[in-house]
Amino acid sequence: MSKVRKHVIAIRFSDAEFEKLSMQMQLEGYRNRSKYIRETVLVRRIQRRNFHRTEANITKQLALLKAEISRIGNNYNQKVRALNTLAKLRDRNGRPVVTAGMVRTDLADMKSMMSEILDKVRIVKEDVTGESESSEEDSL
Q: Which pTM does this prediction carry?
């Protein structure tokens, strides 16, 4: 007979915390977020700042990061190629087909992609070193 779970606890995460949670779930092979949180809180002993990652775990985390950066890089390259192609196109009167607004939107998308890469690198660095860069950034 299975246990009926009738108590709900709502937890809010920042984007960085949620990304970190998702990455840790993926590293440990979990697909069910509730099960992962339940087991982490109730079953395992959590050791935060003094937790030493094994070399295999760091290697696995870096491999996931590399794959994610590769996907973002591919999207970035597609945007650059499209911009270069569109910059050469002219209408019948010789005017450029692409407007500054279109380019601005694509550049904003590209900036967002680069920010994603930096966020993922920060998360891995935080996990590996146990240090948070947010305190350094807040002081700037």
A: 0.40
Chain segment 98-134, per-residue pLDDT in tens: 776 777 777 787 788 788 878 877 777 777 666 665 5
Count of C-beta atoms within a 10 Å radius of residue 61: 19
What's the N-to-C CA distance of the chain in angstroms?
A: 56
User: 127: number of CA atoms within 13 Å, CB side?
Assistant: 24
The closest of 100, 48, 106, 65 to 82, measured between CA atoms, is 106
Which run of H or of E encompasses 116? helix 100-129
Q: HEC profile for 27-44?
A: HCCCCCHHHHHHHHHHCC
Phi, psi of 134 (to 5 degrees): -60, -35
- pLDDT per residue over 42-77, tens digit each? 776 554 444 455 666 777 777 888 888 888 888 888
State the helix-helix crossing angle for 100-129 and 55-88, rounded to 10 degrees: 170
